[in-house]
C-alpha cells in the first residue's frame, strides 16, 4: 500500500450503547481497539477523534421529522416511538441516543472526507456500519445510517460513482433503500438468505429502481455456508460487478456476524475466512479506484471470541500491515478479558482455516443451494452491468 491510513476513533464512540443485555455491546469496539493497540496495529494508523454529525448533515439521508423523534427518544427513553422504530424489541431507546448516533455518523463521514480529499488512502470507522437504518425509521440496532450518509457526502463533494460492498450476515437493506433509485451508487450485499434471517430482504431479484437497474446486487447465501462457499460466492460476483461499475471510491461494511460462533445468525465462517474477505476488498480498492477505501464495522455479537480478532485483522489490512493468522493473542489482552469478563479469550489470531475455496470457473453444481444462488444473481445482475453471466 502507498499512502497513509487512518482510524477514526475516540472513547465517546462507545456511548452508542443500548444497555446491559443488548447484543450490540460497545464492549466489542473497546476490546477491538485494545487488541489492535496491543498488537501494534494502531502504531501503523493515523488515529483521529470523530466529529459529531450536524442535523444538516444527517438530513442529507434522514428526514427532519425522524431526527427530531430520535432526539425526543433520547430525552425520554421510557416512551417508545414505534412509528419511527424507536423503543422496539431490537432498537431500544437510551439516554443521549441522538448525540451518540450522530457521533458514529460523524466518524464515517470524517473517514470519507479524509480519503476523498487525499489526506489518506484508506480510512476506517469500526464503530460504524449501521446499515439497517432507513430514512425515517430505526431498525436492527441501527438509529442513523452512517454508511449512507458517508456515501451521500462523497456524492455531494464530487464523486461520480460510489461502490458499497456489505459483507455482514444481514442484508444491507437500509443502504440499498436509500440509493435504490440512484445509478451513481452500486450496493452489493452478501448475506444469509432472507428466508431464514432478518430483515427478510435481499433476494437476487432486487436489482435497482427505474433508471438505476443493475445498481443493486444481492447474493443470498444458504444457512450453514462456511468459508469455502462464502468465498466462492464472493469471487464469483463481487470483483466483476465492482470493476464493471468503475467506482471512484469503495465503501465497505464489515459485519463479522457471519462467524460460526455468532449467536444471531446461521453461517459458519471463521476469522480466517473473514480476513480473506477483507484482504480481497483491499485489493479490489487498489484495482478499481486507486486504493480509495472507506471501511466500517457492522454486526458481530460474539463480542470476545470473534469481533476483536476479526476487526483487528481489518485494521491491520487497512494499515497495509496484515497480521499473520498464527500470531499469538497478547497475554495482556487475554488477562484483561479474564479479569473484566471472567471469560477465556482465544489464544491465536486464527481459527485454523486457510481461506481456500473452489473458484466459480471450476464448474457449476445445480444440486447445491449455494451454486443455484450464485447463478441466480449472476443471471439477473450481470447483464444489467454489461457482463456475460456464462458459467
TrEMBL record:
A single MF term (Gene Ontology): histone deacetylase activity
Keyword list, A-Z: Acetoin catabolism
Domain Histone deacetylase: 22-316
UniProt pathway: Ketone degradation; acetoin degradation
GO biological process, one term: acetoin catabolic process
Family classification: Belongs to the histone deacetylase family.
Protein name, as recorded: Acetoin utilization protein AcuC
Organism per entry: Kribbella italica
Amino acid at each position: 500500500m502507498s499512502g497513509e491510513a487512518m482510524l477514526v476513533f475516540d472513547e465517546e464512540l462507545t456511548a452508542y450503547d443500548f444497555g446491559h443485555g443488548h447484543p450490540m455491546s460497545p464492549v466489542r469496539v473497546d476490546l477491538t481497539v485494545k487488541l489492535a493497540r496491543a498488537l501494534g496495529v494502531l502504531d501503523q494508523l493515523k488515529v483521529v477523534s470523530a466529529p459529531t454529525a450536524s442535523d444538516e448533515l444527517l438530513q442529507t439521508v434522514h428526514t427532519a421529522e425522524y431526527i427530531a423523534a430520535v432526539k425526543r427518544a433520547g430525552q425520554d427513553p421510557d416512551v417508545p416511538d414505534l412509528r419511527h422504530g424507536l423503543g422496539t424489541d431490537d432498537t431500544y431507546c437510551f439516554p443521549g441516543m441522538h448525540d451518540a448516533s450522530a457521533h458514529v455518523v460523524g466518524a464515517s463521514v470524517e473517514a470519507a472526507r479524509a480519503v476523498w480529499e487525499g489526506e489518506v488512502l484508506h480510512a476506517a470507522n469500526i464503530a460504524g456500519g449501521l446499515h439497517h437504518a432507513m430514512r425515517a425509521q430505526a431498525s436492527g440496532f441501527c438509529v442513523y445510517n452512517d454508511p449512507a450518509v458517508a456515501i451521500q457526502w462523497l456524492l455531494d463533494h464530487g464523486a461520480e460513482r460510489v461502490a458499497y460492498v456489505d459483507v455482514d450476515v444481514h442484508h444491507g437493506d437500509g443502504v440499498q433503500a436509500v440509493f435504490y433509485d440512484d445509478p451513481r451508487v452500486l450496493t452489493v450485499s452478501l448475506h444469509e438468505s432472507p428466508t431464514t434471517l432478518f430483515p427478510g430482504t435481499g433476494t437476487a431479484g432486487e436489482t435497482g429502481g427505474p433508471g438505476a437497474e443493475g445498481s443493486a446486487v444481492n447474493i443470498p447465501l444458504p444457512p450453514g455456508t462456511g468459508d469455502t462457499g462464502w468465498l466462492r460466492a464472493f469471487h464469483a460476483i463481487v470483483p466483476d460487478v465492482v470493476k464493471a461499475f468503475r467506482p471512484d471510491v469503495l465503501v465497505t461494511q464489515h459485519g463479522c456476524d457471519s462467524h460460526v460462533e455468532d449467536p444471531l445468525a446461521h453461517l459458519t465462517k471463521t476469522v480466517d475466512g473473514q480476513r480473506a474477505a477483507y484482504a480481497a476488498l483491499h485489493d479490489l480498492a487498489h484495482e478499481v479506484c486507486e486504493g480509495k477505501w472507506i471501511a466500517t464495522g457492522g454486526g458481530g455479537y460474539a463480542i470476545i471470541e470473534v469481533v476483536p480478532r476479526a476487526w483487528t485483522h481489518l485494521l491491520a489490512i487497512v494499515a497495509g500491515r496484515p497480521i499473520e493468522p498464527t500470531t499469538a493473542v497478547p497475554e495482556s489482552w487475554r488477562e484483561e478479558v479474564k479479569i473484566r469478563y471472567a471469560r477465556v479469550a482465544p489464544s491465536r489470531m486464527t481459527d485454523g482455516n486457510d481461506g481456500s475455496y473452489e473458484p466459480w470457473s471450476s464448474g457449476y453444481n445445480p444440486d447445491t443451494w449455494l451454486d443455484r444462488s450464485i447463478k441466480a444473481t449472476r443471471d439477473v445482475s450481470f447483464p444489467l452491468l454489461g457482463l456475460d453471466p456464462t458459467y
